[in-house]
Amino acid sequence: MSFWHNPRNTEESILMYGDNQGCVNVLVIPNTTLAFRKWKQEAKVDGVPTANIEKVSGLADVRYARWEVHKDWVVELKYEDHLRSIISCSNDPSTGVVIGNVVGSTNVESALRDSNIKRGVQANSARKRLSADQTVFYVYKGVKTFDYSEQYNVLATGGMDRLVRIWNPYVNTKPTAILRGHNGPIFYLFICDKEQRIYSISTDKTVKVWDAQDHSQLCTVGMKTHMIQGEMTALIYNEFTKAIAITTDTLSVLSLKENRYSQSEATQTHRDAIHAIKYNPHFKQIVTACNSSMIKVWDIETGQHVFEFNNAHGNYAVTSMIFDSSGRRLVTGGRDGVLRIWNYNNGQCLRTLKKIGNEEVTCVIHVTVSKNKYIVCVGWDRRINVFTDTTDSIHHEQ
To answer: Full-prediction pTM beyond 0.85?
Structure first.
C-alpha cells in the first residue's frame, strides 16, 4: 500500500494498493479532508471505522480503478508525480516492473466517468490498461524492490538475481547499467538525490552504497560491522539523518554518515614503511608487510587487526608478496634474495626457496598452467627464476 498527496494541493491525494491477484487498486481522492470525515462516519469494527471499496468509492467524489497489471502478486508500488504514473513490481519476470497511468487514457477515463463509479463499483472487477497507457519491463527472476530518481530520471530495480539494474523509465528493452556485488536477493533500494548515492540492501543483511553517476561501489557494510541480528522485515532511509531504520525483532538505526579523516586521525598500521600489500578474496582479509620484516593480517569488513608475525625474512625487509591459487598460502620475497611460503594465519613457515645469488627479490607471482603450478620471481639479479609448486617438493627450474 502507498499514499501520495499533491504538494501543490494538499487536499488532492491518491491511495493505492496491490493484491495477490496482480491487480493495482487506485483511489483518487479530490478532497482528502471531506473523504476521511465521511469514512469516519461508517460503521465501526473493533472500534475502527470500516467501509468496503464499493461504498468508499461512492463518497466525496472518490474515483476508484482496478487495473489488471501483473501475473503475480504485487510486491511494491508507488505514485511518481514527475511521470504522472504508478510504478509497481512483482516477482513475475514478464511483468517485473510496470509504469502505468492512474486512471488510463482519455477514452478509458471517460468510460470510467460514464460508469456507475460514483454510485459504487464491483471491487473484484479489473480492467486491463491500453498498451499505450503503460510500459512493461521484463526483468529476469522478477523485481522485489525499486526506486525512482526525478533528478537523474532513472529507475533502479533489484530482485532475486542479486543485481541492481538502472533503467531509463521510457526505454524498457535494456538497462543502462547493471550493478553487481550482492550475494543475496535484494529487497530494498533507495536513491538519494542530494547525496548522489544509491543504497541497496540484500537478504544476507549486507548494505551497499553506490555512486549514482558513475555507478561505482563506494561502501559495503556487512553483518560483522552492523551486528544486526534476526530477519529484516522492514526498512526506511532518512535522508536528513543519513541513517537506515531496520526492523527485525527490534528496531535498529544504521548511521551511514560520511566521515572525513585527517592525517592525524589515520590509524598507524606499521612503524616502518609498508613495502607490500595483498587482498585475499577467499577470506576477505588484507595482508601487509613492512621494512622491518613484519607481516600483519587485517579483516577488511571491520578493519580489525587479526594476526601478525615478525622476522619473516630476519633483518631484511619483505619486498613482495602473492597468494597461491587456493588463497591459503602466502609467498613472500625479501631483500635477502629468498622466497618463503607461509601459512599466514598462524605464522608458520612451510618452505624456504633459494635461488642462485642473494640479490633482492622485487616481484613474485603464482602461475597455474594446465594442472601445473609455478612460483615465478624476478629481482636485481636480472634473472627469471621459476619454481615448480607441487605437493611433494619445489624444484628450481631456471
So the answer is: no
